[in-house]
Amino acid sequence: MADDVQVRSVWCSHVANFSGAPGTLVQLxxxxxxxxxxxxxxxxxxxxxxxxxxxxxEPTPELLELCHQVSQPECRDDTWDAMMYHxxxxxxxTRRAExxxxxxxxxxxxxxxxxxxxxxxxxxxxxxxxxxxxxLEKMKQTLLECARENQPVVIKPRHGANxxxxxxxxxxxxxxxEELFQSIEAALVGEDRSxxxxxxxxxxxxRGAVLQPMYSIAVDRQTGPRSRAAPMELKVQVxxxxxxxxxxxxxxxxxxxxxxxxxxxxxSQDLVARGQVRCKSLDRCYGRSLPxxxxxxxxxxxxxxxxxxxxxxxxxxxxxxxxxLRVDWLLGDxxxxxxxxxxxxxxAGSRVTPPLAMxxxxxxxxxxLLRKGQMxxxxxxxxxxxxxxxxxxxxxxxxxxxxxxxxxxxxxxxKLKKLLKxxxxxxxxx
Length: 430
Description:
This is Glutathione synthase. By secondary structure, the chain is α+β, with helices and mostly antiparallel strands. Helices cover 42% and strands 15% of the residues. It has 2 domains: 4-119 and 226-413, no CATH class; 127-213, Dna Ligase, domain 1 (2-Layer Sandwich). α2 (30-48) packs parallel to α12, α3 (61-71) packs across α12 (354-371) and α4 crosses α12.
């Protein structure tokens, strides 16, 4: 079983090999970069062992069984999205009301500030209303005040998901009052079929509309009919209270932000070779290529604010006792600074490259199994590796469940099979 010394040695390797200040661009070879990401994930797995998890997040027997399946070397349906979809389905059976606030665009603002004992980290709530005449009239008056001052605002559903029924008003003074009020109504009563596939908690959020200041736009609208503008949004993933990585909302495939804020730029051919396919819906919305100015803006934001973003994200997950949490940070606005756009629990649709999606799922599974005493982690070459598609390297952290060790590395077995085949051919020729 791995001891503290071995964990520290992994840390030393992590600091030495994936080094750089926040915002630094690197383009390591794919296997080397993935190895460093595995080390970040490993630290989250170890953090799970003594992690204080709230009761609503304790794994059900069904989830533990899935964790066992995902950890099997032959498992191929072990992506992050598959894991999250299973949990979403289970949420309709368990119905844990303690987690509703994570899908509530109003409640999460106050709850986050309360847990972190600080001023709200979200954009301010200028107004919000349910389907009641008094609250609705108050929200309309607040919107008109913003229009008179020409303050850019955004209107969105309190109960929504997947960027549906969100209205940006960069110059409300130039917009007809009727259009502004119609956007409130659309956000208030909006319903999208994709929400039927979301967790039970989202279905329990009160219907309502939310009015907030509009964050500065970083990605301009393209020429296509489905194109849309968007702020710079960094989706930060936390496992068992430790940040493991982040991607851009509009362009999640070209880069990965590591725990220390370094930006790993992927080679597009490497991604295609490992099963990555382009997300056509994102391409239609925001364009195929990562805008150079967006990358520069990300570097600047990480250089100035990464430690704050990482600390706040990790502390929030820990204070709430969550096994995982995605914190969507808005970046690049000189007036507002880094702000939380929204929180996501049980979030699928991560759109990360397949090998990383597998590793996220296995890290989540390993963390739960480690907490329950159903997995040991060892640094030894004789055991089957925890991670899929093991790279050719000597040492590998391996998982052993229920005290039983896996067999040798799969890549060693493949080499042995090739060697035996070669011997057979030579013998036949002889």
